[in-house]
C-alpha cells in the first residue's frame, strides 16, 4: 500500500512518523484526526516486534519440551508477527532480516516437532535454541539442524523467500512506474516516486532483477514440492540469494547480482529425490 508517512495531528499539531508507530493516532493526545504532510510512498512493513519471553518462561516451567497449553499461543503469536511484517519501509526495500527468518523457522519447527513420535535430545535442543534466539534474529547453523526437523528449515526458506520476492517485485513495479512519468495511469500525479533506491540509474536494474527472481522462484517451487525436505544448506542458499538480490536492487552493485546467481545455482535440488538424496 501507499501511505503518507509523516503525519500531523489536527488537534494539537504534533508531527510523527507513521512508519515508526504504525498508527494514525496522535502519540501526544491520542486524537485520530491526523493528516499526511508528505508524498505517498510504498509501505508494507509494520512497527511490530517479536517478544517470546512469556513463551520461554512457560517452556522453562513445563516438564515437557512444549507444554500443550502453550503451543497454540506460541504459533498464534508467530503467525501474527509474520503476517504484519513486510519488506518495504517508507519507499525503501529492506533486507530479509534474521528475526523474520527465525520466526518463520520456529513456526515451522513447532509444527514438525509436534508430529514427531519419538523426538530425540537433538530435536529438543534445536527447538529450544530457536525459541531462545528468535527475538534477536538468531538461528542454529545449517549443520545443527536435525534430520527429523530439516523440513522446518526448508519450508521456512520457502515462505520467507516468497514473501520477500513478492514485495521486491512490487518495489520493482513502482520503480518502473516512477521512471515513466509520462504514463499518468502508472503514478499519482500529485505525488513523487513511491519508492527510491541508491546509486545511478536504478531503473536499469529492473530487468535483471526480475529475471533473477524468476529463477529463484523456480528453485523455491521445487523445494516447496519436496515439503522443505532438502539439505539445510540448500535452503539457506535460497534465503541468501533473495537477500543478495535485494541488495542489488537497493544499490546496483553488480557483484551482488552475480553472487545471487551463484547462490541460486547452489540451491538447486533437481538432482534430489523426496528423501533429499
From TrEMBL:
<dbReference type="InterPro" id="IPR055541">
    <property type="entry name" value="DUF7117"/>
</dbReference>
<dbReference type="Pfam" id="PF23430">
    <property type="entry name" value="DUF7117"/>
</dbReference>
<protein>
    <submittedName>
        <fullName>Uncharacterized Zn finger protein (UPF0148 family)</fullName>
    </submittedName>
</protein>
Amino acid at each position: 500500500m501507499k501511505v503518507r508517512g509523516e503525519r500531523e495531528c489536527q488537534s494539537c499539531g504534533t508531527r510523527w512518523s507513521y512508519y515508526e508507530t504504525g498508527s494514525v493516532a496522535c502519540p501526544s493526545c491520542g486524537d485520530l484526526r491526523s493528516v499526511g504532510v508528505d508524498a505517498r510512498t510504498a509501505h508494507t512493513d509494520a512497527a511490530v516486534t517479536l517478544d517470546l519471553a512469556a513463551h520461554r518462561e512457560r517452556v522453562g516451567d513445563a516438564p515437557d519440551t512444549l507444554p500443550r497449553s502453550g503451543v497454540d499461543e506460541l504459533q498464534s503469536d508467530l503467525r501474527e508477527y509474520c503476517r504484519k511484517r513486510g519488506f518495504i519501509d517508507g519507499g525503501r526495500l529492506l533486507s530479509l532480516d534474521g528475526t523474520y527468518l527465525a520466526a518463520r523457522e520456529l513456526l515451522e519447527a513447532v509444527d514438525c516437532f509436534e508430529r514427531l513420535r519419538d523426538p530425540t535430545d537433538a530435536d529438543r535442543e534445536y527447538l529450544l535454541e530457536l525459541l531462545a534466539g528468535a527475538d534477536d534474529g538468531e538461528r542454529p547453523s545449517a549443520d545443527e539442524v536435525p534430520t527429523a526437523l530439516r523440513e522446518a528449515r526448508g519450508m521456512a526458506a520457502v515462505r520467507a523467500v516468497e514473501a520477500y520476492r513478492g514485495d521486491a517485485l512490487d518495489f520493482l513495479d513502482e520503480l518502473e512506474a516512477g521512471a515513466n512519468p509520462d504514463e499518468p495511469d502508472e503514478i499519482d500525479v500529485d505525488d513523487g516516486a513511491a519508492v527510491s533506491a541508491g546509486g545511478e540509474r536504478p531503473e536499469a536494474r529492473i530487468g535483471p532483477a526480475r529475471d533473477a527472481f524468476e529463477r529463484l522462484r523456480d528453485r523455491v517451487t521445487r523445494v516447496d514440492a519436496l515439503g522443505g525436505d532438502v539439505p539445510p544448506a540448500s535452503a539457506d542458499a535460497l534465503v541468501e540469494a533473495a537477500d543478495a538480490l535485494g541488495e542489488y536492487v537497493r544499490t546496483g552493485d553488480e557483484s551482488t547480482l552475480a553472487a545471487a546467481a551463484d547462490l541460486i545455482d547452489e540451491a538447486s535440488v533437481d538432482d534430489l529425490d523426496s528423501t533429499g538424496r
